[in-house]
Amino acid sequence: MSNVSKLLVLCVDIDDDVGDRLGAKTPVIGRENVLKVAMDYILKYPDDSDANAIFGAIQLYDSMVSSFGKENVEVALVAGSSRNEVMANIKILREVEEILSRFNADGVILVSDGPSDEAAAEIIRTRRPIISIKRIVVKQTRGFEEVAVLTRYYILKAIMEPQLRRYTVGLPALLMLIYAAWLFIPQTVRGIASSVLLISIGAGLLGFALDVHKPIIQFAKSYEITFFVSIVSSFLLSLYVSINLLVLHLSPASLISPGFTFINALGFVLGIIVAINAVELYSKTHRFPYGHIAGISMISPLFILISLAYGFINGLIQLNLILAYMLIYFATNLAVLLTLVEIRRRRRYS
């Protein structure tokens, strides 16, 4: 406080009630101007706490004048916006800068009527240090009638104001829609659906806790087409498994038995995703995707080999078929790798 010689007592109305309801233009600077807005507002809306916050700022200004002198203290009123939080912060920042251009304060005392207005404190701190935050609490008789009136007032405010309505109305509506959709799911499927939902939510929360979402978001921004194809492919594979288990009532073992089953489909899909990512990488960076091509030759055939190995373990496939396939698999990959090495050597010296 020793380095502070000029103080600004700043009242914040983050949702711009004085502008929307009273038509006052902000910022309002100076005791007389702020007092006029406070008088006009309380005469029109005597039950609103914003007026009390403005009067509280004036009272605090008067007390600071006696300590610092009139030339070293100023009082002002700024307002945000009822549209959204971003617009509110931008408007408050603009008005604070206008006030500081007229009165170059060293510190700010923030006056508000609640936590919503105090949210602007971080924005104001980017311009001047905040010395103190004073919240004006309106004292009222706690009779039944007063509680009923206050309850009705805040319920209407929660429903009618756009910033609060998305939570007070939107969230219950979303929960009702989810519950209604849940009732359409057959009873026999609900157990599996609950397990899948809980696994998805748990995996999502664990990934968020471990910051796994950050590289995923970065990948989605860098390779939009690949990310979209990956999401669609995951959905189709999940649908394939669900149809086999829930509709066709097949055993889980049928998903990995020889033939075109889940393992083969997974390898096929992964090969397509890597191929699409290779094309997208080349189109954006013009780098030849050596690793992607090598991956394609290894991934898809490898899943077929896994499926054949499962068939051999269960006595469905003979050993000579697996050995023949392994020979073809390794020979093909060796040929692909040698070809890529030769292409890279020629591109380097061309």
Describe the protein's architecture and organization.
It is built from 15 helices and five strands. 69% of the residues lie in helices and 8% in strands. The chain starts with 6 loop residues before the first strand and ends with a helix. The chain has three domains: 7-135, no CATH class; 143-184, no CATH class; 223-349. It has a five-stranded mixed sheet, sandwiched between helices. It is elongated, with a radius of gyration of 33 Å.
Strand order of the largest sheet: 2-3-1-4-5
Tell me the total number of β-strands.
5
State the secondary-structure class: alpha/beta
Shape: elongated
- Which range best describes the helical content: under 10%, 10-25%, 25-40%, 40-55%, 55-70% or over 70%? 55-70%
Q: List the secondary-structure elements in sequence, H or E.
A: EHEHHEHEHHEHHHHHHHHH
Our estimate of the beta-strand percent is: 5-15%
The number of distinct structural domains comes to: 3
Please work out how many helical segments DSSP would assign. 15
Report the uncertain regions: none
What distance separates the N and C termini? Answer: 70 Å
Radius of gyration: 33 Å
Mean pLDDT: 80
Largest sheet: 5 strands, mixed
Fold blueprint:
Blueprint: E1 7-13, H1 17-20, E2 28-29, H2 31-44, H3 49-68, E3 73-79, H4 85-102, E4 107-112, H5 115-118, H6 121-125, E5 130-135, H7 144-160, H8 162-168, H9 170-184, H10 187-209, H11 213-222, H12 224-247, H13 262-285, H14 290-313, H15 319-349
Parallel strand pairs: 1-3, 1-4, 4-5
Antiparallel strand pairs: 2-3
Helix pairs in contact: 2-3, 7-8, 11-12, 12-13, 13-14, 14-15
